Records
---
Amino acid sequence: MNLVTALAFTAIFASVGEILFQVVFGTITAGSYKEWTYTPFASYKTTTALHILCITCGISAAVLSWVGGAWRHLGITTWLVLLLYLMTACVWLAVGVFSMPFINFIETNNSPVVWLVVPCFIVGYHKDIGKYFNIIATTVSWGMILPMLYSIVKMRGYGRFESVNPHVIYLSLVLWFAAYHFLSSESKLLRVQLARAFPLIICCLVAVYNQGRGWLMQCFLVFGLFMIKPVLLGEKKAWSRLLLGGLVMLFGIGVAAAILVSLYPEAVNGLFERGLEDTRTAQYEEFFGQVSPATIIVGGGPNATYQSNYGHAEAEMDYTYFDNQFIWMLFKGGVGITLGYVILVLIPAFRLFFRSRNHHEYAASAVLILWTLALLGLCTYHNVNWNAQNVFALILAGFCQYSLRSRVPVSAPKKVKKAYSVISQPIRAT
């Protein structure tokens, strides 16, 4: 493993360690009837140190990959968009340095430091990094199964949390690694496919327990993408393999449902009772009723807030977040940040999805499409930040870009030069 890859994976594991500290040592208290309150563990010596390690290793990996020659593979469009993005990010970094307390500048996802995670896509251009994706995805998705199950078992009873909670934190971390681990499988053996589906089955179980409709939908979409993969990749006997994928999906969902119905029927009932409950419209009305178009275009900066009682029964308060991360990026960073993120991170995945040549390209592009849906607000408490899932997503984005760029016939300029030399030869007298 080369230095760039080692640094990138150190960033990922440092963040995983930070998340484990926050959840395992966090406190859970009983509130009103069937409601719980969760307070994540925070310590300057542990969580902050791991967060700083994640940022340092991620930026170092991007810089070394750039210096190592990744810049040669960037097209002119990517160069221009990246330049605009970095210029905008530097402006907001300067604002944040002089207007935010140090600890908030380093740790919170409202800090402009989060914009520096996007250049990590350069790491995906590094030679042979793709062969390590499945290793990291397998390690994280399987390694987090026991903590996820323990977060359910240790509860003294069933109840919904008032705000962020251990289950949604685990889902936000694990789902992307579990999805890549499952979708990148090249085996045609049913037992192998079922084994790779197991971390995703656990995600389904936790999503239902948490009544996370968006997270559960994401799990179903992963199974659906697995079903249609043989057809999109043009494999032999694709339709029979599609049927096999359907059986895997039904088995996975069935196992999760059977466990929940037998052990936590209240969670299943609560999920059905929520049904099509609208939890977003009020937030959009509050936001667009207060924030001007000029603020959305230019960006309000790291300290921008709006008045909201979203998720709270008491009076309105200064609110800095928004479930739809594209609107949040516009609110905090403006058009320069948002366009940069969309063009550098998301568009390559959509371009590669229907042009994938192998399971790894398909898995990388599919995960980023699901990532886009989560950013649109499908999943709660999913945001752009310096953490394991964001670093992994950015590296996958760079891998998608590199896969597309590698298909450009690099020999074309030499052919043109050779043809020019032929036609420019002086005509010999006969």
Note: Confidence is low (pLDDT under 50) at residues 410-430.
---
Amino acid sequence: MMKSHAITAMMIGALTVCAAPAHAEPLWRDIEAGMAAEEVRALYPLNPGEGRKVEHHQRNTELHGFMTIGKCKPRVEIIHPQGQVTGIRIWVRDEGILKPTCTEEARLALFEKFGSPDMDNTRRSILPAHANRARESLTWIRPGMTVEWLGRGPSQFAAWSIEYRAAPSGAASEL
């Protein structure tokens, strides 16, 4: 009887070691948390053409012209500070008056995709003179991913960013 338990335990152990790990959900398009920086460089080589530009740096990879929101072409940063992807940042700065603004389109797209945010840490001013200091901070926590919207200023001079990060295990249960 002891032998059969030992053999069963060894078989279960062998299956556990041999089982292939499940793929993580992509943070953005084909980029997954934990992906090696070399894999990112292979997916996004330099000189991609068609009005696009790729810049590889030690801590991140910057993509220009790979995304359009409304009339804006936000910058996409694939963040890999230790050689592995930890997040994605999509952002626009100094839009307005002479350039098109796309703040509401980007913000509404997040609400359409993820619904109501799980956390709202927005700071507002009741004084109209300080409206440009308002900072909107919304966070969505989904299985395996945290999405954060950071917006600032009135919509015609807005700057915003969306950050996709791998959620720490158990983050959804902490809500």
Note: The two ends are 47 Å apart (CA to CA).
---
Amino acid sequence: MRWLTLILVLVCSNLAFAQETGLDRSEVAGIKQKLVTVQKALGGDPEGYTLESEDFNLPTEFNPAQDGKFWPITSGVSLRFGDKTSKDSQASAEQAGADFQAKYAAAIASGDYGAMEKMMEEMQAVSQQAAAAAMAPQKQPMTVNVQFNTGGGTGIDPDAVVFEKAGVIAIRKKKLNDEHGTLWVYIDPVALKDTTRLSRIDMNIPSDGVTNKTGVFNITIQADGTLSDLEAWAHKMDMDAMLSVIDSR
């Protein structure tokens, strides 16, 4: 009986703790809205690409520290982009196929053999165009990960800086003898207040925690793909909009 009582006490304690650290739906919605703001500030689909998938990673718990403070919680959104031309060609081919079947069935029903022959010729031309589009060079997939409150740090290669401004720095990492690479964008108005003087990025949080349990204090964007496309896209991003989601510490 004593063991049963002890187990019940532990279970109740764990449930109470889980309830105490659970985020409200409105708090999670607020975090997601900030992620959506950053996603929109990316500037839409990169030139020649189309969005294939998006996956939000949203928190459900907050992290209490000491003295009524909190450890920042992480969240993010992952995006994947593919070649726009190939996707558009595929969609057009599927629509053309559906239209052909409907028209051909109508021609058969009416006994219009001349129309059937003409449609076969048109369908052959569409198939040839689709085959040519499939053989054309395609852009390689691009993946983008936006993360809140990841912290961390890295050294700055002066020759790898793509652009910088107060609170923001973008750094490229090119693969040797390859057009592919990674573009990192770091956003932190405190740690990156004056990037021109920094030789290292350190986006650390206060050692004793923060007062805002759902606050966003820094943003890290990792984009992988064809580096020239990544850099061209990055120059169109709205950094002021991204900075607007950062909370004071």
Note: The first helix runs from residue 2 to 20.
